[in-house]
């Protein structure tokens, strides 16, 4: 009796880790950095990159594994992907290979009695909340990187600060929205991001996003920027749907009224009120797309 987990340990992991170690080294990471990312010893990394570990031919021929390694190496090397997300993505990939894929075939080869057994077991859900949360955080990190590398973005930050938020697909509360703790601030002409994104740390911008979704919007991300007539005009001129809402009303009814005629609004804004700074809200499918919208209007 041989468990499929043994196939994973004996065949998949040596092949996968050696490929990923090679890919990370090609992207300029040291053996020590690779060891930290993979959670293995530096001597093990040395064996992988010097070809001292056998790779399984069937796995090497699998295009999906090649694509996974490239995606993980790019994300880990750039800092856009956390080690947790890399782990979850790999776990999901392993489960896919176990269900009718190359690992299932290797298991059948090792245990011929399994041949023809069609039942599948839902060991891992590829749409798990953990996977979705890690992907959402990664998207916000990529969006923040766009903003950090956008010359002049600091001029778009309102006095109250900006925040870049993205929610889970089935978001119901602020706890389901990822954002920057505190706010993105203009510090001596440079956009300053105080910490990595987390869930449940934005109240106002997250509330606006949730209100828009309640009103029928498909948007999953919002970035708030400084209000200016030229900013609003530039957004309209770019072909985006721009709608004003009432800052003196509560967020949910105000946004609902603004989206009543067309929920597919790209931009919401208000011109302020007593003690309320005028602000523009850029809506989009993800954090990267709204960050790129901000870049376009500079």
UniProtKB/TrEMBL annotation:
| InterPro entries to which the protein is assigned, alphabetical | Aldolase_II/adducin_N_sf, Cro/C1-type_HTH, Lambda_DNA-bd_dom_sf, ThiN
Record Pfam families = HTH_3, ThiN
Q: Which residues does the UniProt record annotate as the domain HTH cro/C1-type? A: 20-51
Question: Which PROSITE patterns does the entry link to?
Answer: HTH_CROC1
Tell me one GO molecular function of this protein. DNA binding
UniProt name for this protein: HTH cro/C1-type domain-containing protein
């Amino acid at each position: 009796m041989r468990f499929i987990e043994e196939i994973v340990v004996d065949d998949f992991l040596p092949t996968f880790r050696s490929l990923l170690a090679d890919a990370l080294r090609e992207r300029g990471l040291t053996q020590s950095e690779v060891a930290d990312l993979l959670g293995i010893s530096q001597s093990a990394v040395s064996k992988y990159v010097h070809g001292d570990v056998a790779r399984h031919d069937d796995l090497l021929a699998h295009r999906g594994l090649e694509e996974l390694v490239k995606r993980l190496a790019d994300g880990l090397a750039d800092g856009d992907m956390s080690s947790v997300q890399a782990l979850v993505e790999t776990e999901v990939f392993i489960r896919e290979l176990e269900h009718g894929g190359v690992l299932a075939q290797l298991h059948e080869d090792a245990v011929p009695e399994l041949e023809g057994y069609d039942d599948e077991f839902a060991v891992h859900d590829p749409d798990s909340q953990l996977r979705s949360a890690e992907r959402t955080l990664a998207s916000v990190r990529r969006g923040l990187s766009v903003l950090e590398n956008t010359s002049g973005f600091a001029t778009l930050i309102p006095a109250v600060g900006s925040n870049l938020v993205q929610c889970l697909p089935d978001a119901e509360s602020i706890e389901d929205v990822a954002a920057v703790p505190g706010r993105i601030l203009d510090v001596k002409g440079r956009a300053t991001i105080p910490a990595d994104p987390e869930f449940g740390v934005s109240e106002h911008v997250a509330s606006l996003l949730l209100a828009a979704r309640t009103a029928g919007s498909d948007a999953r991300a919002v970035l708030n920027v400084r209000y200016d007539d030229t900013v609003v005009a530039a957004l309209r001129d770019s072909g985006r749907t721009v709608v004003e809402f009432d800052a003196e009303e509560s967020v949910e009814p105000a946004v609902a009224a603004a989206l009543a005629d067309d929920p597919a609004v790209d931009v919401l804004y208000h011109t302020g009120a007593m003690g309320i700074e005028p602000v523009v809200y850029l809506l989009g499918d993800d954090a990267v797309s709204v960050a790129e919208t901000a870049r376009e209007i500079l």
